[in-house]
């Protein structure tokens, strides 16, 4: 997962299976995994039309590398990238085997470089450790679209596209803050189930959450960090609930891990608070739509960014820009927005959801 501003050097993955177009402003966001009800990552949603260049252009080959699809959001990333590439008759899509091994991913990208692909779309396992191979591609004249987890140096990529982790926290904080303020709750106890604390993306989500809550005069109370898995979410939430006999609201950073979070809440028989999720999985959205649990909203971090990354790679490789912009070149960075999904608007977003 990566974060709001590429200059911050944040890293990451995450949720929602939309294939938004890369128009003047690509929007929407999301993350999550486990036992999918549909094929891993859910079915890829119909991709958006080509941004700024729907007419066929020079034939190009786009190489693609991403981590293993052991998480619903990551699976949706791969599905969306492939589905988007199929929309272009002038694109040959070469995806290397997904892997969570850093050395194997570097070797796979080097293979694509040696084949002389026209552009690369790379979601690195670790942006820092793959910076060198990204720069290697750029030095070889192959433009790199850096997806989500950002490389350490802008010399390693032509364009970065990813989600807004700080914005996720802000969206969650405003939803919780406004709901509690409107209900007249004084001195609320607000819990937080974070992801992996040493990841910049988690730190950004927490910072945005704190900043938004502060505008209402609220602050975070009990906080536990999990590991973006259902098992981890269940374990840390059980601990959080034991330590907090009263809660008014909870934000869980990730809908994949949210499966375990909800399981712990149900096992404890707690229902005095409401919860906001993170990423926008179809599972979470169905729960919100049913309105039978504490989960009342989720904030997005959309894997549709992979569809947009392929569309951008095509345009860059063909020397084209985005038709809705005045500039003839594709921008150097695009940050997706984080939407808040509630019962009122969930029907609009549900077709974009990915399976956890």
TrEMBL record:
Leader sequence residues: 1-37
Ranges in coiled-coil conformation: none
Chief location: other
Pfam families tied to this protein: Peripla_BP_4
Family annotation (Gene3D superfamilies): 3.40.50.2300
Start and end residues of each Periplasmic binding protein domain: 62-320
Family: Belongs to the bacterial solute-binding protein 2 family.
The name this protein goes by in its record: Substrate-binding domain-containing protein
Species lineage: Bacteria, Bacillati, Actinomycetota, Actinomycetes, Pseudonocardiales
């Amino acid at each position: 997962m990566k974060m709001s501003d590429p200059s911050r050097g944040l890293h990451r993955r995450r949720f929602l299976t939309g294939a938004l177009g890369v128009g003047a402003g690509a929007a929407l966001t999301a993350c999550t995994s486990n036992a999918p009800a549909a094929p891993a990552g859910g079915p890829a949603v119909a991709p958006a039309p080509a941004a700024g260049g729907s007419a066929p252009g020079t034939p190009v080959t786009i190489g693609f590398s991403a981590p293993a699809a052991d998480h619903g959001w990551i699976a949706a990333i791969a599905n969306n990238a492939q589905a988007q590439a199929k929309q272009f008759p002038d694109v040959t899509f070469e995806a290397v085997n997904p892997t969570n091994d850093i050395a194997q991913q570097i070797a796979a990208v080097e293979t694509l470089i040696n084949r002389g692909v026209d552009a690369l779309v790379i979601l690195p396992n670790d942006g820092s450790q793959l910076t060198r191979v990204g720069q290697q591609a750029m030095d070889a004249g192959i433009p790199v679209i850096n997806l989500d987890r950002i490389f350490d140096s802008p010399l390693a990529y032509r364009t970065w596209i990813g989600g807004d982790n700080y914005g996720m926290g802000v969206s969650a904080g405003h939803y919780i803050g406004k709901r509690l303020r409107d209900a007249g709750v004084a001195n609320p106890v607000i819990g937080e189930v974070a992801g992996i604390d040493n990841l910049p993306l988690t730190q950004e989500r927490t910072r945005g959450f704190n900043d938004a809550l502060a505008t209402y005069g609220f602050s975070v109370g009990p906080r536990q960090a999990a590991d973006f898995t259902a098992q981890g979410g269940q374990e840390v939430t059980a601990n959080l609930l034991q330590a907090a006999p009263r809660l008014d609201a909870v934000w869980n950073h990730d809908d994949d891990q949210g499966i375990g979070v909800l399981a712990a809440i149900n096992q404890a028989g707690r229902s005095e608070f409401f919860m906001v999720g993170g990423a926008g999985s179809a599972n979470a959205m169905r729960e919100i739509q049913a309105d039978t649990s504490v989960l009342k909203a989720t904030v997005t971090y959309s894997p549709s960014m992979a569809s947009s990354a392929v569309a951008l790679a095509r345009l860059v490789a063909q020397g084209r820009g985005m038709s809705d912009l005045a500039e003839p070149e594709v921008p150097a960075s695009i940050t997706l927005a984080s939407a808040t999904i509630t019962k009122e608007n969930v029907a609009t977003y549900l077709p974009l959801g990915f399976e956890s």
